[in-house]
Design brief:
two-stranded antiparallel sheet; mainly alpha; globular
Length: 261
């Protein structure tokens, strides 16, 4: 299922400016905030990422649960999945991600599509009658893509019409789920601790543990990626000058640690 890619101002995201989702013909507007590492520590990593995952996941990641419900993940949208999951959102976490938004007040409703004169041509939306805020497919895509970019999490999309390939993927997911259950692994475990530990113990990382509490997540993940690029560029240059690496096989941008991420 192809989706349009939305372009964001990455400089504003880096500096933690709020992002306003204000689309024409949609009731209300939604402001996305950027939490700090300290916010995540305070509210709890598991609690935070369980709610974040509801916004950033996709139907491929949920294909096994959907399949067990008799739903083919190839035939529904990520927004359809979000409408199935949104009641699991924790409103304590929401206060870190959105300004003045309460997902417990949103209800599913149907409305006629604006670009259609057929009264039977309807779309499902989430609507907060008190705040008069609507979340439709377009609003959801803005939210999902923005949060994926902020947290550098991009779920893989795997779609097919082939029945044999569908069966192969489902069987693979069942084996993986059984393995995790046997080892008592958290299905949605996301550990930011290992990333923080690696960074604060790296000589090139500029923040200590206390300073990290005030750093926005976008700036943090940018630093993580930049460190990896720097190490790669340093290794390439070291290999080239030592004569141990054939520099003709290395792309020129690999030497530039200031290149775009």
């Amino acid at each position: 299922m192809s989706k349009r890619t939305i372009k964001f101002d990455m400089l504003k995201m880096y500096f933690g400016d709020p992002y306003v989702v204000d689309l024409p013909n949609v009731a209300g507007s939604i402001t996305i905030l950027q939490p700090t590492i300290g916010d995540i520590v305070r509210i709890g990593e598991t609690k935070f990422y369980n709610t974040l995952n509801i916004f950033t996941t996709n139907t491929t990641a949920y294909r096994l649960p959907l399949w067990k419900m008799g739903i083919d993940w190839n035939t529904i949208s990520d927004f359809d999945l979000f409408c199935m999951l949104y009641q699991g959102i924790d409103n304590d976490v929401i206060q870190l991600l959105f300004k003045d938004l309460d997902f417990s007040k949103f209800q599913l409703m149907s409305k006629q599509k604006l670009d259609s004169d057929n009264p039977e041509d309807v779309e499902v939306v989430l609507y907060d009658a008190d705040a008069k805020i609507e979340i439709n497919q377009d609003v959801y895509e803005h939210i999902a893509q923005y949060l994926r970019e902020m947290f550098k999490t991009f779920p893989e999309n795997e779609f097919t019409k082939d029945k044999m390939l569908k069966k192969w993927w489902i069987d693979k997911d069942q084996r993986e789920a059984a393995r995790k259950e046997k080892k008592n692994e958290d299905e949605n475990k996301t550990s930011i601790l290992s990333i923080i530990s690696a960074c604060v113990n790296h000589p090139g990382f500029k923040y200590n543990v206390q300073q990290l509490r005030d750093i926005g997540v976008c700036q943090f993940y940018d630093s993580v990626q930049r460190l990896q690029i720097y190490e790669n560029a340093t290794a390439c240059m070291g290999g080239m000058y030592s004569g141990m690496v054939d520099s003709s096989k290395i792309k020129p941008e690999q030497y530039n640690f200031m290149r775009s991420i």
